[in-house]
Write a structure and sequence with these properties.
By secondary structure, the chain is α+β, with helices and mostly antiparallel strands. Helix content is 33%, strand content 22%. The strands form six sheets. Strands 5-4-3-6-2-1-7-8 form an eight-stranded mixed beta sheet. A hairpin with a 3-residue loop joins strand 18 and strand 19. Helix 1 packs across helix 5 and helix 2 packs parallel to helix 7. It is globular and about 85 Å long.
């Protein structure tokens, strides 16, 4: 049979030969310089490495016609100016040891040579202690004396003039200008002690003065709202230190345009770090909302490889799991504290005594089928938390699922809130004691129940509206998580191992993570070259699909070097239990019971959101109420 005719004629053979230096530089420039913002980033790196305390960026036509970066750093000696434009020429590293412990922003020695290959570049610099400055023309190599203070100015004109095809891919001037400003902003957030200003077509478009504190720079560069709607993060875990600010769940956005992560002062986008942040926000964010944050990770330079990508925006950690855990726990700890205490400043009022107040008998829980909790911690701790409740006929209500937590054989009293004695549960109560205690309670004193759904409370700021089901759901959920947190994940061997056809990546991950999988309660071994066998699963997830669980864990371990699949699955079950066990809508609560719920919210971690990320309470200040009713106008 004759071969089908090819639609593409074969190209003539060309001999193997070395490429000219100019073409090599232009190819390298394609990796380093994507748009004007790439040039701004590289020049800012050099300015900061030179010890500049003030950097001025001047742009024309979005950076296409002109990019000028001026600094007051150390400058460049005259004899080194011509060397600076050669490929792989740098003062940052001199050996492999230096490369493995890079402590500077730049180190490749490619940026200036790459930029010079596709644009008109000139350098004006005066070295510290020199009598005069010198200007170098990148095209001709001409070096001449000029007048300038100590520091360096790099001018780049007509970007991509030598590669016009690349220039066609640029966007409008406004778009390119926005990218350039963002590049400066990223550097400004990492270096609050340095002042930055951006000029475009002769007009000042952005300026950030040197600040004494990182929070001040965050407020200047991002907004005061960013600082107001975020919490401080600070954690030292082993050799990893994480500081910065993480946005509260209410401040989450539809886009991830306010997410800044720095490793040793370098802005990066890393899958391990992004996954760690997302894991920390997992049960406090609603839907696909994106959190806001500015986080700074400090780590021994020898434990992170920055020589991964020409743009230097990617890194690789020696121990990704260690970094993942440090970041995740740092954010979780910062978000754990209830924000209700911010609504009222503490006054030092005495803490009230408590008494037990039972919930009304209007709803019940049915017999348990989810015994995984009991297997982990024993039924005793949960019997008190999840008493069995039935209606008058001894049947469970239809709204409650049949799979429910364990109960005691003898039965138990209804689930109890802890209600403060000082609150007047009836007209005969002590009003003076209530007024005194009210000042110490951020969520205030319960007034009434609205439509059987919301609790209305009064605090010193005004009116507090609480979604009682969502709030109680979070309280119960956190109790259940606390019960499980203290115990290691136990494995349950499968009577018949579950085998599945695995990809080469899954097999490699299973072999590489052989020591990690048991800590997740999993035992996965190779059954053949292309088959894996699941021999044990976490006891809490024994009723699930072992193959699907194994695939999910291996996929996350392979991509992020850490896995939260098991914990996520456990939390989903606990969340379901808490949702069905929380106080239902249309259940009438007494004032004592409502106050008890408010007090528990103030003491429960992450009580500002329910398990699904929705808010549990809202504050209406007196000023907002006055505005609604046009008082004072």
């Amino acid at each position: 049979m004759s071969a089908l005719p090819s639609s593409i004629p074969p190209s003539p053979r060309r001999p193997i030969r070395e490429l000219p230096d100019e073409l090599i530089s232009q190819i390298a420039a394609g990796e380093v310089v994507e748009r004007p913002a790439s040039v701004v980033r590289e020049l800012l790196d050099n300015a900061l490495d030179a010890g500049a305390s003030q950097v001025t960026v001047r742009l024309a036509s979005g950076g296409v016609r002109l990019i000028s970066v001026e600094d007051n750093g150390l400058g460049i000696p005259r004899e080194e100016l011509t060397v600076a434009l050669r490929r792989h020429a740098t003062s940052k590293i001199a050996s492999l040891d230096d490369l493995e412990t890079v402590g500077t922003m730049g180190f490749r020695g490619e940026a200036l040579a790459a930029i010079n290959a596709i644009a008109e570049l000139s350098i004006l610099s005066r070295f510290t202690g020199a009598d005069s400055a010198f200007a170098l023309d990148g095209r001709t190599g001409e070096l001449r004396p000029v007048a300038r203070a100590v520091g360096t100015t790099v001018e780049v004109r007509e970007l991509f003039f030598a590669t016009p095809a690349r220039r066609k891919f640029l966007k409008t001037d406004a778009t390119e200008l926005a990218h350039c400003i963002e590049a400066v902003r990223r550097h400004a957030l990492a270096r609050p002690e340095v002042g930055f200003s951006v000029w475009h077509d002769g007009k000042l478009v952005e300026q950030w003065r040197a600040a004494d504190a990182r929070e001040q720079r965050l407020a200047d560069a991002l907004s005061d709202d960013f600082v107001a709607n975020s919490v401080a993060v600070e954690r030292l875990g082993g050799v990893v230190r994480v500081v910065g600010r993480a946005g509260i769940p209410d401040a989450a956005r539809s886009r991830g345009d306010q997410q800044f992560f720095y490793v040793n002062g370098r802005f990066v986008r890393d899958k391990v770090l992004s996954h760690a942040v997302r894991s920390a926000y997992e049960d406090v964010l609603h839907g696909q909302r994106q959190p806001i944050y500015a986080l700074y990770l400090e780590i021994d330079p020898s434990r992170v490889d920055v020589n991964v990508h020409p743009t230097k925006i990617e890194v690789r950690f020696r121990d990704g799991r260690e970094v993942h855990q440090a970041v995740r726990h740092a954010i979780e700890d910062a978000l754990a504290a209830p924000r209700a205490s911010d609504a009222v400043a503490p006054t030092g009022a005495p803490q009230p005594f408590f008494k037990e107040t039972a919930l009304p008998e209007s709803a019940s829980w049915s017999q348990p089928a989810m015994n995984f909790v009991a297997r982990e911690r024993g039924a005793g701790d949960f019997e008190a938390m999840w008493p069995r409740r039935t209606d008058e006929l001894g049947h469970a209500p239809d709204a409650t699922p049949s799979h429910w937590p364990p109960t005691s054989a003898a039965g138990a009293a209804p689930m109890a809130f802890r209600a403060p004695v000082g609150l007047p549960a009836s007209p005969e109560g002590d009003a003076d004691a209530a007024a005194t205690n009210e000042e110490a309670w951020p969520l205030g004193r319960a007034l009434a129940q609205l439509q059987g759904i919301y609790i209305l409370a009064e605090n010193t700021q005004g009116l507090v509206v609480v979604d009682m089901h969502a709030a109680h759901e979070r309280i119960v959920y956190e109790r259940l998580k606390t019960q499980l947190d203290g115990a290691a994940i136990t494995s349950q061997p499968l009577l018949i191992p579950a085998t599945f056809a695995a990809t080469p990546q899954e097999v490699a991950t299973a072999e590489a993570c052989a020591e990690v999988l048991p800590t997740l309660g999993l035992e996965i071994t190779a059954f053949s070259a292309r088959t894996l066998a699941v021999r044990a699963v976490p006891g809490t997830l024994a009723d699930g699909d072992p193959v699907e669980l194994a695939r999910s864990v291996l996929a996350e371990l392979g991509q992020h070097d850490a896995s939260t699949v098991v914990q996520r699955a456990q939390n989903e079950l606990l969340s379901t239990m808490a949702c069905h066990g929380a106080v239902r809508a249309n259940r009438k609560l007494t004032i004592d019971e409502m106050n008890a719920l408010l007090r528990q919210m103030e003491a429960t971690e992450r009580s500002d959101q329910c398990n699904h990320g929705r808010p549990t309470w809202r504050q209406l200040s007196i000023r907002e109420l006055d505005t609604l009713f046009m008082r004072g106008r």
